[in-house]
Amino acid sequence: MVTSDLFDNKAKIDAFVFTGESNRFYFTQFETSFGAVIVSEKRNVFITDFRYETEARDKVVGFDIIISTYSELYDKIAQVLKDVGAKTVGYEDTMSVGEYNVLKGALKDFKLKVATDIIAAKRAVKTDEEIELIKTAQGIAERALARAISHAKVGMTERELMAEINYGMVTGGADKYSFDTIVAFGANSAQPHHHTDDTKLGKDDLILVDMGAKYKGYCSDMTRTFCLGDPGEQLVGIYNIVKEAQEYAIKFAKAGMTCNDVDSLAREYIAANGYGDNFGHSFGHGVGIDIHEDPRVGANSDIVLRPNMVITAEPGIYVPGLGGVRIEDMLVVKEDCVIDITGYDKKLSI
């Protein structure tokens, strides 16, 4: 992972310390439950413990490997920072208060600066290799959904369909799920993050599925809404509005636009069709190592889209007591357009 561009920043940071699991993986492409990454212009260091030593020395490229216990971790970080002559150290402020106090005490000889936004901006723009991994993860998810939804039948529970989807992802090549799969039947679909339960599928019920596979550390994310029968005129109309709103935003989104401008494309379309109060979440979000990362594509986000950002497009309309519709694709931002890397069709009837 290229690290030199981290130092092209106004903060004049000499070295970065990353202790969060996602950022450790980002730099090393090696998943661990413990450790730290130190990045400087003179030396890059990966600190972990004895459980990962053999594999880390074999797989981690471009980093010196140091083995540590938990109690020694911050002392070893401080020593590396002294060795590279760092004065100002960037850190991520996502740690607990207790962890920060330990870090602050161990690094009392250095000036600390929050660098969360710097690393988030770097991770938001994907390399071509990262995009290919995300595409592979998406393909795994799509094949799993196609297999599982073909088994949907009246009387099946949400939990049973979720199990079919998860089984298909794992046996299809996923390392794990990107997040807990959401399956919502009937009126439950009006809850954007419904907790899947033992509700049984009724005749003409909506089926909302929000799912993603994780492959070699990278996530996919997709939502589809289906019906085995006839959900009724109002829900069919809602489905068409959501689909058209998504297509409209995808058509005009491109690099250089702010995230709130992209969000407004779909939001205004939905509002113009009478359901503005029923679209309560953001249009989308960044996807990568984490299922939610920068940029947030919402009404309050002024982040500017840049080429090779990967974002979701997931407008939705939710009517309590009736049901909800969400359709979600993943997009790769380009200079003059976005490329939809979700190939699953958008048919309501199955």
Summarize the structure.
Helices cover 33% and strands 22% of the residues.
What does this protein structure show overall?
This protein is an alpha+beta fold. It has helices spanning 21-28, 53-59, 73-83, 97-106, 116-124, 128-149, 158-171, 233-252, 259-272; strands spanning 15-18, 36-40, 44-48, 64-67, 88-91, 111-114, 176-177, 182-185, 206-211, 213-215, 218-219, 222-227, 284-286, 293-297, 310-313, 316-319, 323-326, 329-333, 338-340. Helix 6 (128-149) packs across helix 7 and helix 8 (233-252) packs antiparallel against helix 9. The chain is elongated and about 70 Å long. The protein starts with 14 loop residues before the first strand and ends in a 10-residue tail after the last strand. The mean pLDDT is 95.
Features:
350 residues, 22% strand, three-stranded antiparallel β-sheet, six-stranded mixed β-sheet, alpha+beta
